[in-house]
Amino acid sequence: MPPSPPPQPQPPAPTTLARHRVRDAIRQLILSGTYQSGQRLVQQELAARFGVAQSVVRESLLELQFCGLVEAVDHSGMFVRGLDAAGLRQAYQIRELFEGLAARLCCQTAGRADLRELADLAQKTYEFARQDDLQSMGEVDRQFHFRIVQISGNELLARLTEGYQVLGLFVRANRDRRQIRDEHFAMIKAIEADQPATAERLARRHVRDGWRTIERQITAGTFVPQWVGDTVVAPAAADKNRKSHAKSKKTK
Q: How far apart are CA 39 and CA 26, in angstroms?
């Protein structure tokens, strides 16, 4: 009797595709400033807007909550989360640990093609910076760092980094472009030389120096998240919006 044919892979469930589509659409609305800090995200309205069930919207908002873009307020619903120094600091602390680990693991997993790809991304980041094309520079810089995580071979680490990767869409450290280039290539050199301790140390210092630059901007009052521009709402204002909504709900 001939053996049974292997089972064919099943296509993703439509609800999964819809959840990702709605998640990405809401994220873009937040990053563009259409939905501002402290604004309530009404599931019924979002479901009608995107033509999906409320359960799909709920799942999408939970993913965005994990990424730090929205937050749940007891008995009030989901709100666009405001950025503050404490939240950014926490995200950068996690990023430092994760990317340091990824760089260490890359010493065991990175091949020649991987190293060439990282070097190409590092050089492109520098070239875009020289051209003052900050949007392209930021995109390629994110690719560089995420490729290190992917090359590490740790799938769980790659999934966990999604929680802070979104920061790169609206946070820019504005550091010296030559220094960033040199730090990127130093990390690649340590990985190529199979020096895990050095690779981890350099990766962690790279992230830590980026945070210190942002922290100085926050202290000086010059830091404005790229995605909200002049429409940024201070944390206190966001809290006021949420409390006002909660109060009006109680009085109904």
A: 13
Percent helix, strand and coil across the chain, each to the nearest 5: 70, 5, 25
**This prediction's pTM:** 0.72
Total structural domains in the chain? 2
The type of residue at 29 is L
Read off the tokens for 151: 């090359």
CA distance linking residue 168 with residue 125, whole number of Å: 14
**Shared domain check, 166 and 146:** yes
Local structure of residue 10 (DSSP, 8 states): P
Residue 239 belongs to some domain of the structure: no
**Do residues 138 and 171 make contact, with C-beta atoms less than 8 angstroms apart?**
no
pLDDT recorded at residue 177: 93
d(CA 106, CA 237): 43
Structure tokens at 200: 């981890």
